[in-house]
Every structure is written in structure tokens, then in C-alpha cells.
Design goal:
The chain has 117 residues and is an all-alpha fold. The protein is 96% helix and 0% strand.
């Protein structure tokens, strides 16, 4: 029983080695650790702020690109419509020119018939 009592006294007198190391570390590096923790917190805050800013800028860029694409699509649709209208007008003019040739041919035939008569 004396061994058990001695072990209990020894363990009661000397705390856990890890806690002793932590206590020595805090005594030696206490101020530095507080400073490092503060700096790490600042760096983490800046990283978080930067990520949020980048995310916001990315969303703005995507919105701008979508808007530009919609504008381009509208412009292309308008241009296609204009070209289609112009093509239809040109086709009608060609048909009119051909019709005028027919009328001219008919008129020449009538003149020829009158001259023969």
C-alpha cells in the first residue's frame, strides 16, 4: 500500500507533462502566440473579404456578359430581319423588271401587228 500512496502523492504533486509543457510554452511565448493568433485572424478576415469581393465581381461580370449577349442577340435578330426585308424587296424588284419586259414584249408585238395591218 505504501507504493500506491507514493504514486498518488507523486501524481498529485506533478501535474500532467503536457500541461506543464503548455504552461512553460505560455510563459515563454505567451505574447508572441497572442500576436500570431491576432495576425492569423486578420489574414483570415482579409482572405474572407477578398473571397467575397471576388465572388461579387464574378457575379457582376456574369451579369454583364449575359446582358451583352442578350444585346448582341437582339442586334443580330434585327440585322437578319433587315437583310430579309432587303432581300424580299430585291426579289420583288426583279419580278417587276421581268414583268416590265413582258409588257414591253407585248407592246412590241402589238406594234408589229399594227404595222403589218
Amino acid at each position: 500500500m505504501s507504493k500506491k500512496n507514493e504514486e498518488k502523492k507523486a501524481s498529485a504533486e506533478s501535474p500532467n507533462p503536457e500541461s506543464r509543457i503548455a504552461a512553460v510554452r505560455d510563459l515563454i511565448f505567451g505574447e508572441n502566440i497572442i500576436q500570431y493568433n491576432s495576425e492569423f485572424a486578420e489574414v483570415n478576415a482579409k482572405i474572407k473579404e477578398s473571397n467575397e469581393d471576388n465572388q461579387r465581381k464574378l457575379e457582376e461580370a456574369v451579369a454583364t456578359l449575359e446582358s451583352n449577349m442578350a444585346d448582341l442577340e437582339r442586334a443580330m435578330d434585327q440585322r437578319i430581319q433587315d437583310l430579309s426585308t432587303e432581300l424580299n424587296k430585291s426579289i420583288e424588284e426583279l419580278f417587276d423588271e421581268k414583268a416590265d419586259r413582258r409588257k414591253l414584249g407585248e407592246a412590241l408585238e402589238q406594234i408589229a401587228l399594227k404595222l403589218q395591218a
